[in-house]
Amino acid sequence: MIDSPEPRLLSRAVAPDEPETPVRLPVPAGLGRLLVLAAVFVCAACGLVYELELVALASYLFGDSVTQASVVLSVMVSAMGAGSLLAKRLRCRAAVAFGLVEAVLALVGGCSAIALYASFVWFGGSHAVLVGFSLVIGVLIGAEVPLLMTLIQRVRRQDAGGAVADLFAADYIGALAGGLAFPFLLLPLLGQLSGALLTGAVNALAGGALVLWLFGRDLTARGRWVLITANGAVLAVLAAGTFLVPSFERAARQAVYGEDVRVAIRTDYQEVVLTGGPGGAGGGAPLSLFLDGRLRFSGRDACRYHEALVHPAMAGPRARVLVLGGGDGLALREVLRYPDVRSVTVLAPDPGLLRLGRSDPGLSRLNGRSLADPRVTTVTGDVFGRLRTAAAAAGPYDVIVSDLSDPGITASTKLYSREFYGLAERALAPGGRLAVHAGAPDTHPRSYWTVDASLRAAGLRTSPYAVGGRRSAYAAGPDRSAAAEHPPRTWGFVLAAREPERPRLAPDAPVPLTLTPGTLRSAERTAEELRVPGARASTLTHPRH
């Protein structure tokens, strides 16, 4: 663009293919320019929502949010440059072109979440679909800027620098509005699928209304009917999609989890799905819990998992216990088997899961109604932040049980870092023990041994052990395809302690267990056979999971 005060030169520099006569507006030029900037604001907000929607859904379905965000944003930004170049040829019909671009963007962006989810559910995880939608949406968003610049100059001529400043100010402020609306309004109130569809409808209405009303007098009859038909069809598709979202979600859940889905809720923290009979036994399928699409436990082997996690840490002082995570109440059930336990604090990130653990008849029966025990205190919130003040507020703990999500999930990476275990070490009483669920060493050995290295880097002595006999190999979410080909057969744990020597795996439970001393000796050998030499600690600034 040429920075010239002459309107005639500016017109040729900005839009050489545009007619030099001013557009016939139904409102004064100043108001018309304000309306164009308002449309820029709305379209920018919708564009950012599409980006965040793809990042959030891809992170949920494929895992590793850092990778998914990098793929979506890098593809979109590069595609925006291509879209800007392609739009140069459309400036001669900027109004009609902008209206059609917004209609297509509303359709593609609004349906992107449903299409990506459907592809994952029925065809397995496909990054090609994610990249395809990112590419198309990026091209369409990039095409907006040259067309809007042309429209602004047709409404009222101004110097190039001022026009660019106004355009990008509206664009960036709109992006801020979209970025805040997505996590605080759309996602909690409507969910990912309905939120994307509503955003598409707003996008289509904003683009169509601007062109048909503000620039309608300059449109040909054919152009006007093309825009009306295109926007009407897009709005009809989005409305039909919104109406069908509930039945689509039910069908998708059944395709992922099977026919036994009994509870499916979206808490403020995660999606929680319960499958199987209320009692977790009997004629129906065993009770299983999925968190954000990942299998948390199955009634087939939940007892074996929680015994292996909890009881080795309880061989010693155990009056005061801290459970990190464990909102389902199953690890707590094992802790409360010891009559000399005086108090247990459950520090869980999700209050919704705690409520389900208390109220659901199947889950409360499986956890032995442990969350209602008078010795138990529940605290919710950020586990990392709460652990900072746990020891200072309530005194040191004899036992800490870490029953958190797998370390390979990005949202949980900081809870498997050296810094986190340093906080846990400070919260332990002298002679205290820390039991950590560290993933599956047979399918993710490097991640497992990174947990062990992080614990040792925090000043703790460790005893790694891997308990076999896992029967619930099915996994949804990012691990579904991998689990189908190479299902995990072991659970990996690490017992850590503030002792001069590594802690001994010798549980002293008051009730019979499937976990025997022989099983634990075998579990230590199994872990050692899977050792990854040279594993290094994970830190907040250098995560290694």
From TrEMBL:
Compositionally biased region (Basic and acidic residues): 522-531
Cell cycle listed as a keyword: no
Compartments reported by the entry: Cell membrane
SUPFAM superfamilies found in the cross-reference section: MFS general substrate transporter (SSF103473), S-adenosyl-L-methionine-dependent methyltransferases (SSF53335)
Domain of life per record: Bacteria
One of the GO BP terms on file: spermidine biosynthetic process
The protein's enzyme class: transferase
Protein name in UniProt: Polyamine aminopropyltransferase
Species in which this protein is naturally found: Streptomyces xinghaiensis
Lineage of the species this protein comes from: Bacteria, Bacillati, Actinomycetota, Actinomycetes, Kitasatosporales
Gene from which the chain derives: speE
